[in-house]
Amino acid sequence: MDTFSGTIAITGASAVTVAGTGLDPVLSALKEGRSCLQPVPEEVLAGGHGLLWGRATQFKAADFMPPLKARKLDRCSQFAVATTGQALREAGIDKGAIPAERIGIALGCGFGGIANSAEFLTGYFRQGVAGLSPLLFPNTVANAPASNASIEFGLKGPNITFVQRFCSAESAILSACRFIEEGRADVMLAGGVDELTPLMMKGFAALGQVHSYASGFGEGCGILVLEREEHAVAHGVAIKARIGRIATLGLLLPDAEQAGIDRLLPAQRSFDQVSLSGAGAGIDLLAGKIAAQTVLRTGQIVGQSLAMGGVALGAFSYLLQPGQSGLHLAASPEGPYFAFSLHGDTPA
């Protein structure tokens, strides 16, 4: 469990999802209870009638970067570069305004670069070594989005990528908070990014997962701007919410679930708002142990993925009202589990 003595402030956030670019489309859909998921086309998955997915079809990389640069980046990197720029603007941070060594990035990523990986390996399978494209390889690795965003915006602080199933983004955000608490950075961009391709849907179908873990899968990016509270106050930015506590648990052991839940959840079990992210029975088990006036399931609105916790936490921090208490819960089917305690900004 991490309790942050110098409160971590969320001063900006943005997203790219099936709902559109920026957080406003996600917030509107959440408030209306309106799902943005669309039917999976027959040409993508034969016999997939009734299945839904969340492809970010409204996203146009050329709206955020020159076309030549966009062509050099994988889809996840395009998402990350666009979202990072929007999140920094939300936080009132101009490029170069903070010493480069004091601002970093931590992202969760599940299937990042998978389209480029498929193209890269297809060349090898068809032509052997001669068919491998060196231009494609840098975009086949999971840390490409964080690296490309750091290059674009001159982020020379900590740079790390997590691949931890449905809690990948939460793992990255926890790491970012630790970097700030340890004094290794003043500002961290943190969240998650992932893509969704027709080939992935065929893979999910082959594994028998389109009606379970891959049901309503989505793609996109959600990034928060995290700062130590006094740093945020010093440059005069509005604080959206504060992170006070993050607890993690690897497993809920059989016959000892309650002991694990007691370690994970705060002593307070009543909240104004609760956000749920991830997949597996663990989410419903945890949700059943708390009371909340409002429960948000962002995945039902824009799709779930291995790194959508960044979108969920970004939207959650913007929906928390001044003085409200919030809890964000995330779980993968077999663990880990995360519990984030958040507080809406205290009115001046």
Number of strands: 14
Name of the top-level CATH class of the largest domain: Alpha Beta
Number of helices: 12
Largest sheet: 11 strands, mixed
Q: Could you state the CATH homologous superfamily of the largest domain?
A: Thiolase/Chalcone synthase
Say what the CATH topology of the largest domain is: Peroxisomal Thiolase, Chain A, domain 1
Structural category:
alpha/beta
**C-alpha geometry:** globular
What keyword list fits this structure?
single chain; about 350 residues; Peroxisomal Thiolase, Chain A, domain 1; 2 domains; eleven-stranded mixed beta sheet; three-stranded mixed beta sheet; 12 helices; 14 strands; about 25% strand
Describe this structure in words.
The protein is of the alpha/beta class and about 350 residues long. The chain has 2 domains: about 10-235, Thiolase/Chalcone synthase (Peroxisomal Thiolase, Chain A, domain 1), CATH 3.40.47.10; about 240-345, no CATH class. It is about 35% helix and about 25% strand. The strands form 2 sheets. Strands 1, 2, 5, 6, 7, 9, 10, 11, 12, 13 and 14 form an 11-stranded mixed sheet that branches. Helix 3 (about 75-90) crosses helix 5. The protein is globular, with a radius of gyration of 19 Å. The model has no long low-confidence stretch (mean pLDDT about 90).
Question: Layout of SSEs?
Answer:
Layout: E1 2-17, E2 20-21, H1 24-32, E3 38-39, E4 52-54, H2 67-72, H3 75-90, E5 103-109, H4 114-127, H5 144-153, E6 159-162, H6 168-181, E7 187-194, H7 198-206, E8 217-218, E9 220-228, H8 229-234, E10 241-249, H9 257-264, E11 270-278, H10 281-287, E12 291-296, H11 299-302, H12 309-319, E13 325-331, E14 337-344
Parallel strand pairs: 4-8, 5-6, 5-7, 11-12, 11-13
Antiparallel strand pairs: 1-2, 1-9, 1-10, 3-4, 7-9, 10-14, 13-14
Helix pairs in contact: 3-5
